[in-house]
Amino acid sequence: MNTKHLPWGVLGAVTICLAAISNAYGQTSAQDFPSKPVRLIVPSAPGSGLDTVTRLVAQRLGEHWKVQVLVENRPGGGTTIGTEIVAKAQPDGYTLMSTYGAMAANASMYTRLPYDPIKDFAPISLVITTPNMIVANPSLPVNGIKELATLAKARPGEITFGSGGYGATQHLTMELLALKLGIKLNHVAYKGAAPAMIDAMAGHIALAISTPGSSADHVRARRLKALAVTSLKRNAAFPDVPTVSEQGLKDFESLDWFGVFAPHGIAEPIAAKLGVDIGAVMKLAATRERVVRMGYDPVGSSPQEFGAFFRREVARWAEVVRDAQLKRLER
User: Rounded distance, CA 80 to CA 70, Å?
Assistant: First the structure.
């Protein structure tokens, strides 16, 4: 419709009518959604924690919808390759992305991205959260955060820690911890949590940080010692490991997470239905039990709740990158 020469009153009425028609169409589409296979892109390699949880959610959604939910791994570029594919997809709900905290961190860690993490995506549901666990080589003469701070102040820049990659949320969590404690730690980036754990056990680095699921076997076998978890409450799998907050940094919290996004422009009724359905499968006893065994906390939030959470994460890591004066990456 050409509205260029319509009077303002008529134009306003037309706008309202079009909005009403669009909303009604969205409601109808949501009732029928999905009517064909849904593609769920994972911007990391097969076998990762994100991939495993995504496949579990995809299976449960497929059973609920009675259509296929196809998981497609598109790793590379620090998750930017798979993320760009979703940013350019049709916002019809049939192409979704399951990703993790790097989505928020990358907004500040890269000088340029082929997408805008906030403007180009619609948050759908926060699927799981998990604390990080700070572990140390058994020979390091510290057993908690206060002792670590004392040692680091006596040996500024000498204590090394490993993470699953430069700019990963685990790396930024340790930078945030160092800022709060007023200490300097030396970061060593690895291609994943496993090699960081191996080097920590071998004594090549003093500390490592990853999810409890990644470090559980090594801690239980006493090849590494756990200093703290970064959630506000203790982790159910390691009830004897205190939180950072309990050890003097009140209210310190840093969670990793997995969440589902859609391309920007998805109809609100379809986004809402996706949020409700993901929440429903995360409440299933079989799903919750499996996720908890993996060391994660099941969530399943609404699009509005996840959107608010995601914006807070983007702002928080932007502050850390700035205050720690971290070098930004080029894609």
Answer: 20
Nearest alpha carbon to residue 80 among 63, 62, 103, 101: 103
pLDDT digits (tens, 9 = 90+) for 33-52: 999 999 999 998 888 888 99
Find out whether 296 and 216 touch, Cβ atoms under 8 Å: no
Token output for 280: 């429903």
pLDDT in tens, 60-88: 999 999 999 999 999 888 788 999 999 99
Say how far apart CA 37 and CA 28 lie, in whole Å. 18
Distances (CA, A) of 310 to 71, 203, 260: 23, 36, 11
Q: Which fold has domain 33-126+259-296?
A: D-Maltodextrin-Binding Protein; domain 2 (3.40.190)
- CATH for 133-247 (3.30.2310.20, 2.60.40.10, 3.40.50.2000, 3.40.190.10): 3.40.190.10
d(CA 296, CA 208): 19
* pTM across the whole model: 0.84
